[in-house]
Amino acid sequence: MGSVIAMTGKGGVGKTTLSALAVDWLVRRGETPILAVDADSNANLHWALGVRYQETVGGIRESARRQAQALKGIAKQEFLELRVQEALVEQQGYDLIVMGRPEGQGCYCFANNVLRDVLDRLARNYRHIVIDSEAGLEHVSRRTLLCLDHLVIVSDCTVRGIRTAARLSALADEVGLGARSRGLIVNRVPEGGPPPAVRSEAQASGLPLLAAIPLDEHVAALDGDGIPLAGMPRNAPARVAFEEALTKLFPEQERN
Ligand SMILES: Nc1ncnc2c1ncn2[C@@H]1O[C@H](COP(=O)(O)OP(=O)(O)OP(=O)(O)O)[C@@H](O)[C@H]1O
Ligand SMILES: [Mg+2]
To answer: In this predicted structure, what is the pLDDT of residue 178?
Structure first.
């Protein structure tokens, strides 16, 4: 298997945008199949990708809990496996799975244990996995249940934003979120590049700077018109800057 990459960061920094662009880039490079995971309980990666979904893993978990009495052991395993397969949105080169809402009250242990198995097995079918996560980090460690290769922390282009990114990174250490690589992406950088104060804060964070992605009117324009990000011009500055970073994260030798 190739790599599992997760986009994290505080709210509104560009996680979903970059996740969708990463999926599109990997598909174009032929590094398929890709699994796109929408791990934000307020699902919206599907908009950025331009697809629809019917079912979420959270919904499946809920119905498994409700039918706990009726379904036993292996039957339940098979039931969940089938339901997760049905929840997969199949696209050219990639599939999307939407995690949906976290569990409510009641006992979900059995459903969760089985689901963990099902999702682990599912993950093995893919070359790469791209996870768009909810703001904050707790979610990533708790819900995706996967071993990460690249933890990308996205920040806006402010000193406070970078400090938050550094805090998220420290939190990743605390929860034992091991990742082969960890790096910072500063997004929505104004013309002229990140201001000196932001640069030095980024340096102080100790996080390698993967990319400084320009503020790009193409992103906002597509979003405004509800057009999937794959439709962004190839030479759009944000896309070019991000794809440069992706080339470093996914070197050619990983192709085989
Ligand atoms: N490089 C960019 N240039 C211009 N606008 C951008 C850029 N990156 C993201 N945006 C815009 O910023 C907003 C937030 O982006 P996005 O939804 O990807 O963030 P997010 O981190 O996923 O947010 P949330 O925490 O709510 O899930 C969107 O309106 C998006 O169009
Ligand atoms: Mg998002």
So the answer is: 76
Q: Whose CA is nearest to atom 25 of ligand 1?
A: 11
Q: Of residues 149 and 64, which shows the higher confidence score?
A: 149
Which residue's CA is minimally distant from atom 14 of ligand 1? 12
Q: 47 pLDDT exceeds 80?
A: yes
For ligand 1, whether the C-beta of 187 sits within 6 Å is yes
What is the domain partition of the chain in residue ranges? 4-54+88-105+125-255
Q: How confident is the model at residue 139 (pLDDT cuts 50, 70, 90)?
A: low
Q: Which atom of ligand 1 is nearest to the CA of 9?
A: 21
| Probe target for ligand 1 pocket from 37, 188, 219, 244, with the most ligand atoms within 8 Å of CB | 219
Q: What DSSP letter does each residue of the chain carry, written as one string?
A: ---EEEEEESTTSSHHHHHHHHHHHHHHTT---EEEEEE-SS--HHHHHT------HHHHHHHHHHTTTT--HHHHHHHHHHHHHHH-EE-SSEEEEE--SPP-SS--HHHHHHHHHHHHHHHTT-SEEEEEE-SSSHHHHHHS-S-EEEEEEEE-SSHHHHHHHHHHHHHHHHTT--EEEEEEEEEEEPTTSS-HHHHHHHHHHT--EEEEEEP-HHHHHHHHHT--GGGS-TT-HHHHHHHHHHHHHS-GGGG-
Query: What digits encode the pLDDT tens for the residues 157-190?
Result: 999 999 999 999 998 888 888 788 999 999 999 9
- CATH architecture assignment, domain 4-54+88-105+125-255: 3-Layer(aba) Sandwich (3.40)
